Amino acid sequence: MELSPALAAMAAYPFVRLDEAKADARARGIDLVDFGMGEPNEETDPAIRAALQQAVAPTLLYPRATGLPELRSAIAAWLRLRFGVELDPETEIVPTLGSKEAIFSFAQAVVRPGKDLVAIPEPAYPVYERGALVAGARPCSVPLLEERGFLPDLDAIPEETWSRLACFWVNYPNNPTGAVAPVSLYEELAARAAAHDFLVCSDEAYSEIWFDETPVSALQAADRSRIVVFNTLSKRSSMPGYRSGFVAGPAAVVAALKAFRPTVGTAPQEFVQRASVVAWSDEEHVRRTRALYRRKRDLLRPALEAKGLRVAGSEASFFLWVAAPRGETSEGFAERLLGHGIVVAPGSYFGAAGEGYVRLALVPTEEECARAAAIIEEVL
Ligand SMILES: Cc1ncc(COP(=O)(O)O)c(C=O)c1O
Question: What residue segments make up the domains of the chain, in order of their start?
Fold first, then answer.
């Protein structure tokens, strides 16, 4: 049977391979501590859960793509509190069903003749590229190198590429490297976006998982007329299963999304939106979540460094980006660790520029992290 060429050209989602390797290790009797997938595994705050339960009414109508005004206002209030920016909840914010679907489908709303390129960092979360391919765009890879702090080298991008760009994806705090970006990156991108007529798409899923300095948002750029931000409660509020995020950006872009999204059918359920109002309105549970990731990080990082492993980037997010020992590939090192019961994601899963590293997502429990630290001490 013939399928869409974009789908046919896509390799299996790399984590499917990791699942197979894990099943194989378990079959060999190995007890695993799983740092592979970045799926938060913590309890959602009881007040958020209660809000969801109370909102499950006997009759639930189709949710509207524009979202509840209460939720858009709560998001606007959070953006003001957290980043000091003023957005109009009526025209500049739209709630999404988690952020992945909005990231994936965004290229479909903006790619057009003459604007057929989508800039994608490498290594990266795979969804930017997949979304671009399905939209019929050409992904254009922008390497993130350790010697540049995992920031894109904008001067290395040729002039003819800039003029054909529909959008330029950035993601800080970064998955998988844990690097953070200064506001100057967004200022520079905003200036180039104005000069070449493209949108800066900033995926800020990990903005609230930080340890030293509070990460900035692309919305803090002086000119945000071409900046579109994607954020989510999945990591900040440990709510991956709720599916709740938002897009914030220029009114024209948000209006286009409000026109496009009802056809896709991706409005979050009303009970999820009511729980999300509670989540965006509280910072206390977020502080507790950050403290928890800090404790896990403090268990693992010294154990890795004591073995001479270089932890690169890793300033924020719940990822540790660890250089593989000299002479070992990402997959080879990941396989060796798997043999000792420690599951990590090979850096090569995130694009060729991720080769030479492995990623640890600090999602196992503190006890499991302590156990993994002891294994590392013993076997590496
Ligand atoms: C960089 C990045 N962006 C976006 C997402 C999507 O998260 P969600 O759809 O749960 O909001 C993830 C999830 O792993 C991610 O790592």
Answer: 5-43+285-379, 58-280
Q: Give, rounded to a whole angstrom, the gap between the first and last alpha carbons of the chain.
A: 48
| Residues whose CB falls within 8 Å of the CB of residue 145, separated by 6 or more in sequence, listed in order | 153, 353
Pocket test for ligand 1, best of 101, 125, 266 (most atoms within 8 A of CB): 125
Label residues 160-195 b or e (16+ Cβ within 10 Å = b): eebebbbbbbbbbbbbbbbbbbebebbebbbebbee
- Domain 5-43+285-379 matching CATH 3.90.1150.10: the answer reads yes
- Per DSSP, the residues of 258-291 read HHHHHHHT-PPPHHHHHHHHHHHT--HHHHHHHH
Q: Which atom of ligand 1 is nearest to the CA of 174?
A: 1
Cα 203 to Cα 217: distance, rounded to the nearest angstrom: 9
Return the CATH fold of 58-280. Answer: Aspartate Aminotransferase; domain 2 (3.40.640)
Residue 100 has phi, psi (to 5 degrees) of -60, -45
List the one residue out of 297, 324, 294, 298 whose CA is nearest residue 310.
Answer: 324
Which residues, in sequence order, are bridge partners of residue 95?
246
pTM flag (> 0.90): yes
For 249-365, where are the alpha helices, taking DSSP H only? 251-264, 270-280, 284-306, 330-339
The average pLDDT across 199-206 equals 98
> Which of 15, 75, 203, 231 most suits a substitution to test ligand 1, by most atoms within 8 Å of the C-beta?
203
Residues 233-253 have a mean pLDDT of 98
62-88 average pLDDT score: 97
**Cis omega before residue 173 (within 30°)?**
yes
Regarding the beta carbon of 232 and ligand 1, being less than 6 Å apart is answered yes
CB 347 within 8 A of CB 123: yes
Return the SS3 of 235: helix
Q: In which residue are the tokens 């992904």 written?
A: 139
By CB atoms closer than 10 A (0-12, 13-18, 19+), residue 282 is: middle
C-alpha–C-alpha distance, residues 53 and 37, integer Å? 28
* Nearest CA among 371, 314, 372, 306 for reference residue 344: 372
pLDDT band at 72 (very low <50, low <70, confident <90, very high): very high
CA of 326 to the centre of ligand 1 (A): 31
